[in-house]
Amino acid sequence: MRDSKRLLSLFRTLSPARGAALLEYAEFLASREADDTAKVLPTEPLPIPRPAEENVVKAIQRLMQTYPMLERNHIFHDASSQMTRHLIHGVAATEVIDELERIFVRHYQLHVEARNTEQD
């Protein structure tokens, strides 16, 4: 509270042009703060349930939303190979989606292990 009073006091001593510049700078800092806050990813998977009827593409999208903390590049190879199994080799969507869920869980476990190692 004391800082805000001091800031207001300083603001009142500025010329209109410098006051406007200070406001612009404060707005810039506030927007950066919001951006920094928005970039904080959850550490736990989000509870997005699997629908009864789902295709492979929608499943990948759901799993990416469920595990936003994972690097997409790390999962891309595994996910694309499952898509190939489904489209080229005719493996049923439910079987491929089950495997995709296992892949995402495995990548999440590796992510947690790496995070715990960094903290030690």
Commentary on this structure:
Helix 3 runs antiparallel to helix 4 and helix 3 (56-66) packs parallel to helix 5. The protein is mainly alpha-helical and 120 residues long. It is elongated, with a radius of gyration of 24 Å. It contains five helices and no strands. Helix content is 74%, strand content 0%. It has two domains: 2-38; 56-119, no CATH class.
Task: Give me some keywords for this one.
2 domains
Could you spell the SSE succession in H and E letters?
Answer: HHHHH
| Count of domains | 2
- Strand % is under 5%
Average per-residue pLDDT, rounded, comes to 87
Shape: elongated
**Oligomer class:** single chain
Number of helices: 5
Share of helix among residues?
over 70%
Roughly how many Å apart are the termini?
38 Å
Largest pleated sheet: none
Question: Which segments are poorly predicted (pLDDT under 50) over 5 or more consecutive residues?
Answer: none
Content-based structural category:
mainly alpha
Tally of strands: 0
What's the helix and strand layout?
Layout: H1 2-13, H2 16-38, H3 56-66, H4 72-87, H5 93-119
Helix pairs in contact: 3-4, 3-5, 4-5
Overview in brief:
This protein has five helices and no strands. With 120 residues, the protein is mainly α.
